Amino acid sequence: MGSPHWKRLCLLLLAGLTSSLLLYGHYYATVESPTGRRIIASESFKPSAELEEPKPSRKQPSRCLRSVMARAKADPKFGEVFRFDIPVLMWDQHFTLETWERLKTRHVPYGWQGLSHTAVGSTLRLLNASANQHLFDRDTFPRGCVRCAVVGNGGILNGSRQGKAIDAHDLVFRINGAVIKGFEEDVGTKISFYGFTVNTMKNSLIAYAEYGFTQVPQGKDLRYIFIPSDIRDYVMLRSAIQGSPVPEGSDKGDKPQKYFGPEASAEKFKLLHPDFLQYLTARFLRSELLNTQYRSLYMPSTGALMLLTALHTCDQVSAYGFITTNYKQFSDHYYDEEKKPLVFYANHDMMLEAALWRSLHQAGIITLYQR
Ligand SMILES: *[C@@H]1O[C@H](CO)[C@@H](O)[C@H](O)[C@H]1NC(C)=O
Ligand SMILES: *[C@@H]1O[C@H](CO)[C@@H](O)[C@H](O)[C@H]1NC(C)=O
Prior knowledge:
By secondary structure, the chain is α/β, with parallel strands linked by helices.
């Protein structure tokens, strides 16, 4: 018995795959219609030779012995899959002619095809703080290993009493409709990173308001991770740093402070690199959907992208509220009032994600919460 809001968002039940895909395909075509002008190289490009291959974002070496990196490298299968020198984040240095030429040939979220040069460039130029170049500063964690928990919103967390264990991690990632109030015992309260696309964030505020998700989490130490899945993400990010209303596009007039709080500074925001998203999809979540005419709408889920981001930055990673083999025993979300089946969106491949979490857990690379 979903609310009208909920129904509105459930565009894409797997049951109606074909017809839904047509609907979504239309939506997506709108997103991708080329709005960009032909690009004229200008002084906004930094003259540089070193920039085609962006600098690795993991500048500070880890002192952790039993780390994700050590375990992945030792694993016969995952040793070939992980590349820890891939840039995770994007910042001002990446806005070069070379990168523009390369990324404009790939559609979002893997590139900048059809996006306005001005919109992308003016956003990236604001990401010029050292905090934009790494997820966190290793020096603030004197203990050897930086331990991260990534908290999905799965029904498996209902009644789990994992709150204390989650909060005991150094850093906690949460995503989309991360309802905390009333569920502290099960999901904890700590939040270091909130990951989203503007689309998923705004949909969550509509769909989960009745469960208490009336505001995007805010806090002095909280950092926001933008997934650049649309021009909206670049435009919102720029306005968020400038502390001004969104001047154009589908979020025109929106006040970013409403979402991210009054403190607007570049340090608060991180942007995932399109090359990182391309690498994650190609190596970890290459779905069969990519072999169909619907390839352009497929992308890993927000939760998957955050978990994989943690795997490429933290030393140890625990996943809570992610899909498990026995997902049918649990409701869609931990805050559902009555049990609902997990929603399969046609633009994601949840069974492939489930298989990946299971095999990373079996390889000892993540700790997947199961019951
Ligand atoms: C970043 O750019 C802004 C705006 O152009 C400028 O005011 C600021 O000083 C720059 N910060 C750094 C760390 O270079
Ligand atoms: C949450 O767990 C309680 C007991 O632990 C159960 O009674 C309730 O039905 C569960 N809610 C959902 C939505 O599954």
